[in-house]
Amino acid sequence: MQEQRGTYNVKAGLAEMLKGGVIMDVTTPEQAIIAEKAGAVAVMALERVPADIRKAGGVARMADPRIIKSIQEAVSIPVMAKVRIGHFVEAQVLEALEVDYIDESEVLTPADEQYHIDKWQFNVPFVCGARDLGEALRRIAEGAAMIRTKGEPGTGNVVEAVRHLRRVNAEIRQVVATPESELPDLAKELRAPLELVKKVKELGRLPVVNFSAGGVATPADAALMMQLGADGIFVGSGVFKSQNPEKTARAIVRATLHYNDPKVIAEVSEDIGEAMPGLEMATLEPKDRMQDRGI
Amino acid sequence: MKIGVLAIQGDVREHVHHTEAAGAEAVLVRLPRDLEDTDGLIIPGGESTTIGMLMAEYGLIEAILQRTRAGTYPIYGTCAGLILLAKEVIGFSPARLGLVDIDASRNAYGRQIASFEVALDIPVLGPQPFPAVFIRAPKIQRLGPSVTPLAWHHGDVVMAEAGPYLVSSFHPEMSPDLRIHQYFLEKVKKLHEVAGVS
């Protein structure tokens, strides 16, 4: 029998296997090992975590392949990496490096202001950010096999992550409650393909896995996003910008698993040191808002 | 019939769906007490390192091993579940059950880009091929004498059983075909009939 690689089933399937887990940003093999030992289900290989990208300013690009390779050699869990929105050649490079998932990410400086990558052209699966249902469905139409709500990366402030997940969920409820005959109009309003809107109505959820990202800094933040309905958690700067990354990583993994058990969350939150310093949204200039990129 | 689905991490939802569609009640297992009324257990796909370490921390390895002592508690492990049931593992494996006499090597087909689906001949399920989804799948490198192979792909054993235990490298819960879940439920039923007589 003929094997088929890179099918949508296989791409979306890996995301299904990550559900209930925590994916951590790492910049060195040592950090990747800390993440794996803490129970992360995957790592995101980066040159800088979002908080440092924010600080450094300038153009943020795909990581040096050497960093990605050294992290792939260090751990056995899946390794993801980021490309600039629309930069399909960076994506070709990551596919050649055999990363397990490509994040077409607003954390990096967009390379194309109009088009996202045509993700159907790749055998490696893609995850993309979204602030609302229409955005999520547009990315899925382009071939994304996993979604993460955007939040506001590198802030250590969970407020935007909450806003985006609540908005996606509210819009899903609206789709479910809308009669079939009115869906074409709603699809137009959402700026999303009708077929995918119908699929959302049928399933009562997004057709792919939806993680929460952008601002999770504590175990309670992670459990909050899980209770709001996230399938899993991306932690960017939250682990390695905290006072004690080992303890914070372990605690966030355990709070994500036992998100409905406040006793466990209390237990794991104890004595883990200070969380990363946070940023108030009102202090961000419009140009510093990563979530508004690539919508 | 109540089947526990280990719900630490991974594609729990899909296994719950298939277990219920195949005619059993599915119970989410997060803590040892959740095992109490179950007649069998499914260990889903996910990251075996994460699942194993959290099973150990919350007392699940011990609790499951205790339940299996009589040899009549059936367990089905898919992908990560296969690794957690294997006696020996090649690659990082912080904790596992080790109930099936096989050596498993993790991610043996390669990284995600090598993941695939294929129509697989599985003689015990009848002549119709089974749509098997392999995602960063493990390989069984050695089978002990107590282990019966049930399916092969390019010469590698990808599904096997040993007494009350069933393992597959691939994910039957990722395709709509229910036959492997039905096969497992049948196994659970038979084991309980035998146990009921004794």
Task: Give structural notes.
- The complex is a heterodimer of chains A (295) and B (198).
- Chain A has helices at residues 8-18, 29-38, 50-56, 65-74, 88-96, 133-141, 159-177, 183-190, 194-203, 219-227, 237-240, 245-257, 262-269, and strands at 4-5, 22-26, 42-45, 79-84, 101-105, 126-130, 146-149, 209-212, 233-235.
- Chain A is of the alpha/beta class and 295 residues long.
- Chain A has an eight-stranded parallel β-sheet, with helices on both faces.
- In chain A, helix 5 links the parallel strand 4 (79-84) and strand 5.
- The longest helix of chain A is centred in the middle third of the chain and has 19 residues, at 159-177.
- With 198 residues, chain B is α/β, with parallel strands linked by helices.
- Chain B has a single domain, classed as Class I glutamine amidotransferase (GATase) domain (Rossmann fold, 3-Layer(aba) Sandwich).
- In chain B, 27% of the residues lie in helices and 31% in strands.
- Chain B contains five helices and twelve strands.
- Chain B has helices spanning 12-21, 48-57, 60-68, 80-85, 179-197; strands at 2-6, 25-29, 40-43, 75-78, 86-90, 100-105, 116-120, 130-134, 139-143, 148-153, 156-162, 165-168.
- In chain B, strands 2-1-3-4-12-11-10 form a seven-stranded mixed β-sheet.
- In chain B, strand 10 and strand 11 form a beta hairpin.
- The longest helix of chain B is centred in the last third of the chain and has 19 residues, at 179-197.
- The interface between A and B is large, with 40 and 44 residues.
- Strand 1 (4-5) of chain A pairs antiparallel with strand 7 (116-120) of chain B, so a sheet runs across the interface.
